[in-house]
Design a protein that fits this description.
606 residues; alpha/beta; Immunoglobulin-like; six-stranded antiparallel sheet
C-alpha cells in the first residue's frame, strides 16, 4: 500500500472534506480507457549525433521505377522455419529490416507497415533498433539500421537471441528510434517448446518511418504498456538499453496517482497563520510556506516513483532501472529531454521526485523531473497522420479559438476572464496575422469540433472541469468541461456529436486550462487526451488537479508570451516552471502536463 499523499506533520495542508470522492478503478478496469490514434511527427533536426560516424552514401531507388506500395518493417528468424517452435537455450538470429515488400519466406516471423507510399527521396539516416525481452537472452540489445534516401534499409539489424523459457509464448519488443527519438515499436511473440494457440505474431505502433529524418535528439526514452502477465512492461533506451517488468497493479497505480493529486490539492488549498490562502490569492509565495508545500508534493512524488520501480515485488531488473533513472537525472545537464511513450499508464511524470533516499530536510526543487528535465509525454499508439511540429503562422496567419467560462469572473472576482480577453485583443491588434474567435457555449464548441473545415491551430480552454471514475454513475464518459451558463460538455457528448472520424483540419494544439475545478482523476486526461489526438490534434496541455484561477490566468499569459514568439513547447513549459519557482517560490507549474511533442512551435511566425 502506498503512503498518504499529504504530510501528516503539515496539517495546514490537509484536504478539505469532499462528498464527491473519486471512485478508483479496479485492477482490470483501468485498461479500458478510450484508445487513441496519432502520434505527432516532428520538426527538422539539425543533424545526427556528433558521436555517430557519418552515414555512407547508398544507391538510390529510381522513383520512376519504384513499384506502387508502402514500406514494410520485416522481422525474420534467419535459417529457421518461423512456423516451428524454438528450442530452450537454442541459438537464433532475429533480423529486422525495412523493405518494399512484406517478407513471405519460411523464415518470416511477421511484418508491419513502415509508412504510407513514399515517392520523394529523403535523406540518408542512421536508425537504431533496441531489442529487449525478459524471455530471451540478447547478446547485444542495440544495433544500427542504415536507411537510404529511398527509405529502404541497407543491410539488417541482426540480434543473437536465446530463449530462457522452456515452453510457451516468448515475447520481444523492438524499438526503432533515431537519436533516442521514438519511431516505431514492434511487439514480437515467438513459440518455444511447442506450438501454441497464439502462434507467431508481430504487431506495431508508432509513426511512419519516413519521419525519422526530421527527428531531433532525446536523451532517454521510455516505453511502457500493460503486460499480459499483469503489471506493466517498461523499456528504456539512450546511453544504455534495458527491459523490466513493473509489478505495480492498475489499482495500485491509480491509488498512487491519486495520492499525488491529493497532495497537490492540499498545497493549493493551504491556509497560512492568518487564515489566508497564499496559493489561491498570490503568485509570489512566502518562503516558509513554499518550502512546506514543496516537501508535501515531493513526498508524494517520491512515493509514486518508488512504487513504480522499487515495489515490494520488483525484481533486480526493475530496481536497476529505477536506480539508472535516478543517476541519469541527477547528473543531467540543462536541456536534457526525457521522452515517455505510454499506454494506459497516466503517470504525472513531471511530479515524480527522484533521489537516492528520502530526507525531508533536504528537499530540492530540481529533484522533480519537471523542474530538472524537459519531459515529453506521448501516447503509445499509431500515427495515421503526417504532421510535423511546426504550426505555420503564414501565409494564412495563426487561427486561435478561445473557449472561456465567463462565470469564473462572477464566482471568484478579479476579472480574470476579462483580463485574458484583453490580452488576446492586444495580441491580435499588434499582430494582425493572429486572429481569434471566442466561444462560450456548449453549442459553439461542439459545432466547431464537428466542422471538418475548421482551421483552428490553437484551441484554448479557460474553464472548470470535472471527472468521474469507472465506478461512478455514467463512468469516465461523463468527465466534462464546464462552459458558461454553466453548460457542461461531456466526453460522451463529444464522441456522439463530434466523433473522432471528423478530423480537425488545422491540427490544433489543445490547451485545457482547468481552473478551480473538481478533483481530476487519472482517467480525465486518459479520456480527453486520446479524444483530441484521435481527431487530429498535435498535442494536449492539461492540469493534473485543481489550479487556482489567478495562477491559471498568469500561467497562460506567460505561456503564450513565449509560445507566440516561437519558443518550442517543451522548453516553454520547462522554463516557465522554473521561472515561477525561482522568482516567487511557486511550484504550481508542475501541475501542467504536456502530452505533445516537445519540439512543437510556431514556425514561421505570423
Amino acid at each position: 500500500m502506498l503512503g498518504a499523499g499529504v504530510d501528516p506533520d503539515f496539517p495546514s495542508f490537509g484536504l478539505p472534506a469532499h462528498d464527491d470522492a473519486i471512485v478508483l478503478p479496479a485492477d482490470d478496469e483501468i485498461h479500458s480507457a478510450a484508445p487513441c490514434e496519432p502520434l505527432d511527427d516532428v520538426a527538422p533536426s539539425p543533424g545526427v549525433l556528433a558521436a555517430e560516424a557519418a552515414a555512407p552514401t547508398f544507391p538510390e531507388l529510381d522513383p520512376a521505377k519504384e513499384p506502387e506500395g508502402g514500406r514494410w518493417v520485416n522481422a525474420v528468424l534467419e535459417d529457421h522455419d518461423a512456423g516451428e517452435p524454438l528450442v530452450f537455450r537454442g541459438n537464433y538470429v532475429l533480423a529486422i529490416s525495412i523493405d518494399l515488400d512484406e517478407s513471405t519466406g519460411t523464415d518470416a516471423v511477421g511484418a508491419a507497415p513502415a509508412s504510407h507510399l513514399t515517392r520523394d527521396p529523403g535523406a540518408e539516416i542512421r536508425l537504431t533498433v533496441t531489442l529487449n525481452s525478459s524471455d530471451f537472452d540478447i547478446s547485444e540489445p542495440q544495433r544500427p539500421l542504415m536507411i537510404s534516401k529511398a527509405g529502404l534499409s541497407v543491410g539488417k539489424a541482426r540480434f543473437d537471441i536465446q530463449p530462457k523459457i522452456t515452453s510457451g509464448s516468448a515475447r520481444l519488443a523492438a524499438v526503432i528510434h533515431r537519436e533516442n527519438n521514438f519511431v516505431q515499436q514492434l511487439d514480437i511473440a515467438l513459440e518455444v517448446g511447442k506450438k501454441t494457440l497464439e502462434g507467431t505474431t508481430v504487431t506495431s505502433v508508432g509513426r511512419p518511418v519516413e519521419v525519422a529524418q526530421s527527428l531531433s535528439r532525446r536523451d532517454i526514452g521510455l516505453s511502457i504498456q500493460p503486460s499480459p502477465l499483469g503489471g506493466y512492461d517498461c523499456m528504456t533506451w539512450g546511453a544504455t538499453a534495458s527491459f523490466a517488468h513493473l509489478p505495480i497493479s492498475a489499482g495500485e497505480l491509480a491509488q498512487g496517482i491519486e495520492n499525488v493529486r491529493k497532495a497537490l490539492l492540499g498545497v493549493v488549498m493551504a491556509k497560512d497563520a492568518n487564515g489566508g490562502s497564499p496559493f489561491q490569492h498570490g503568485i509570489v509565495i512566502d518562503p516558509a510556506i513554499s518550502a512546506r508545500g514543496l516537501r508535501v508534493i515531493a513526498k508524494a512524488g517520491y512515493l509514486l516513483f518508488r512504487s513504480l520501480f522499487f515495489h515490494p515485488a520488483a525484481d533486480a531488473q526493475c530496481q536497476g532501472m529505477g536506480t539508472y533513472l535516478v543517476n541519469e537525472v541527477t547528473k543531467a545537464d540543462e536541456g536534457f529531454t526525457l521522452q515517455v511513450l505510454a499506454r494506459d499508464f497516466p503517470v504525472p511524470w513531471s511530479l515524480l521526485y527522484l533521489t537516492d533516499a528520502w530526507d525531508e530536510n533536504a528537499v530540492q526543487w530540481k529533484g522533480f523531473l519537471g523542474a530538472k528535465l524537459i519531459v515529453e509525454q506521448i501516447p503509445l499508439c499509431n500515427d495515421s497522420n503526417r504532421r510535423d511540429t511546426r504550426i505555420p503562422g503564414i501565409p494564412d496567419g495563426l487561427a486561435v479559438s478561445l473557449n472561456f467560462n465567463s462565470d469564473i469572473d462572477v464566482q471568484f472576482g478579479g476579472g480574470l476572464v476579462a483580463v485574458q480577453q484583453a490580452y488576446w485583443h492586444t495580441v491580435t491588434e499588434s499582430s494582425p496575422r493572429i486572429r481569434s474567435v471566442a466561444r462560450t457555449s456548449k453549442a459553439d464548441l461542439i459545432n466547431s469540433l464537428k466542422d471538418e473545415t475548421l482551421s483552428d491551430q490553437i484551441i484554448y480552454f479557460y474553464c472548470h472541469a470535472e471527472s468521474l471514475g469507472l465506478g461512478a454513475g455514467g463512468g469516465p464518459g461523463q468527465s466534462r468541461l464546464i462552459m458558461s451558463g454553466p453548460e457542461q460538455v461531456t466526453l460522451d457528448d463529444l464522441n456522439l456529436d463530434a466523433p473522432a472520424q471528423q478530423k480537425l483540419r488545422g491540427a490544433p494544439l489543445v490547451f485545457i486550462n482547468a481552473c478551480e475545478s473538481g478533483e481530476l482523476s487519472p482517467l480525465f486526461y486518459n479520456g480527453f487526451v486520446p479524444y483530441f489526438l484521435s481527431k487530429g490534434a498535435r498535442g494536449v496541455i492539461g492540469t493534473e488537479c485543481k489550479v487556482p484561477a489567478l495562477f491559471a490566468s498568469e500561467w497562460a499569459r506567460r505561456f503564450f508570451d513565449k509560445f507566440l514568439r516561437g519558443s518550442p513547447i517543451g522548453e516553454t513549459v520547462h522554463d516557465l516552471r522554473n521561472e515561477f519557482f525561482d522568482e516567487g517560490g511557486n511550484p504550481l507549474g508542475l501541475l501542467y502536463g504536456v502530452h505533445c511533442n516537445a519540439d512543437t512551435q510556431i514556425d514561421p511566425l505570423p
